[in-house]
Amino acid sequence: MRKARSLHAHDDTAGSVWDTLRLARMIALVACGLANLLAAIGPAPARAGGSGGCLEGDWIAEARAFVAEETGIQAPETCVRLARKEHLDELVFPVALGQSHGEAVAAVYVPATREILLADDLDPGTPLARSYLVHELVHAQQFATRAHERASWPGVLETDAYSVQALYLRTWGLREEAFLLQALGMLQGACGYSD
Predict the structure, then answer these.
(1) Please, are residues 93 and 127 in contact by the beta-carbon 8 Å criterion?
(2) Which end of the chain is more exposed for a tag (fewer CB within 10 A), N or C?
(3) Is 194 helix (H, G, I), strand (E, B) or coil?
(4) Distances, alpha carbon 92 to alpha carbons 2, 59, 139, 189, in Å
(5) What is the DSSP letter of 75?
(6) CB burial string 98-114: b at 16+ within 10 A, e below
């Protein structure tokens, strides 16, 4: 799942590199904590609880084709829906975990319902917003191929998803954002590393 601090008035610029790096560090710390919790108790059988039909559009087909081309695995059929940020936060940061420290979830894959939920304030006309869909399609692939059962650590799944997301951003010339996501993915993959 990809987390972002704020999704309002997003203009696809990373802003200050230092602000972005601080945000990436905070997200990595939260993600490591979440990965540790999931490793201990296993993922909750979350329900999306969305209403309405699945979204359709060329931007979804383009993201699905990109993921299939880059990974060599067909992206499974998933329902893409918009959801309130509060609902996404509840799926990722259950009440038992306490406050989310200001993060907002931009997108999440819900294995129980095979849905990808995107924050309702994302603009799919921007490559950064579409990159969240790319990230979650990788997670859908991971569950379809049972990669989550073979992963040595949950952070490995995030590393793969962030890598494909970063590659997508690079194809759109968003090198700084791609670099930061690639670094975030490496941090999450390292959460469970021990010698």
Answers:
(1) no
(2) C
(3) coil
(4) 10, 25, 14, 18
(5) P
(6) eeeeebbbbbbbbbebe
Most confident region among 37-46, 100-109, 122-131, 144-153 by mean pLDDT: 122-131
At 2, is the secondary structure helix, strand, or coil? Answer: strand
Distance, in Å, from the CA atom of 167 to the CA atom of 180, rounded to the nearest integer, reads 12
User: Do 27 and 191 form a contact (C-beta atoms < 8 A)?
Assistant: no
Residue type, 168: Y
**DSSP secondary structure of 6-55:** --TT--S----HHHHHHHHHHHHHHHHHHHHHHHHH----------S---
| Span 112-152, pLDDT tens digits | 999 999 999 999 999 999 999 999 999 999 989 888 788 77
What pLDDT is attached to residue 50?
45
Pairwise pLDDT comparison (4 vs 86), residue with the higher score: 86
pTM of the model: 0.69
Tokens of 131: 């990159």
Tokens 């940061």 sit on residue: 93
Model confidence at 171, in pLDDT bands (50, 70, 90)? very high
Q: Which residue shows structure tokens 């999704």?
A: 7
